[in-house]
Design goal:
By secondary structure, the chain is of the alpha+beta class. It folds into two domains: about 120 residues, Ribosomal protein L10, N-terminal RNA-binding domain (Alpha-Beta Plaits), CATH 3.30.70; about 45 residues. The chain is about 60% helix and about 15% strand. It contains six helices and five strands; from the N terminus they run H-E-H-E-H-E-H-E-E-H-H. It is elongated and about 95 Å long. The termini are far apart. About 30% of the residues are buried.
Length: about 170
């Protein structure tokens, strides 16, 4: 990698660090190509990105960003996962780490808040942004549904009473 490629890599990572909501640092302990492909596909489906980056270049890119705290985690064979959704990358990495011992969660950062491995796992246990939106829409719709049920309930009761009288009269 020549000097201009390194500068491009640093600039790209710096732009990523200025845009994302979470960065998770993992240590690869001998992932096979097939396992790495499965992980990358799962991460891509979740709207996140997974990239092996040179530690020194990633540390330079993280300077002057909220993610400067993850520099301490970048030793050995590391990779970065990031997403705009604060939960997506962590959730996929934690789920994948449960299936294999070839990847270790080292830590991460949620903006300027540095997380250890347990913090990343706790973050992954939270509902994603889409799940929260769904719950919120459900909560907003619930009162309207209940009001509609209450307004139609007396009419339905009257109809049943009239139906019962009609059966008795016949």
């Amino acid at each position: 990698m020549d000097r201009s490629q390194k500068a491009d890599s640093v600039a790209q990572l710096n732009a990523v660090f200025n845009e994302v909501g979470v960065v998770v640092v993992t240590r690869n302990l001998g992932l096979t190509v097939a396992q790495s492909s499965v992980l990358r596909n799962k991460i891509r489906e979740a709207g996140a990105t997974y990239k092996v980056a040179k530690n020194r270049l990633a540390q330079i890119a993280a300077q002057d960003t909220d993610y400067v705290g993850i520099c301490d985690f970048m030793t050995g064979p590391t990779a970065l996962a990031w997403s705009v959704d604060p939960v997506a990358a962590a959730k996929v990495i934690v789920e994948f780490a449960k299936t294999t011992d070839k990847i270790e969660i080292v830590g991460g950062s949620l903006g300027s808040v540095v997380l250890n491995a347990d913090g990343v796992k706790a973050l992954a246990a939270m509902p994603s942004l889409d799940e929260l939106r769904g719950k919120l829409v459900g909560l907003i719709q619930a009162p309207a549904t209940k009001i509609a049920q209450l307004t139609t309930a007396p009419a339905a009761k009257l109809a049943r009473v009239f139906g019962a009288y009609a059966k008795d009269a016949a």
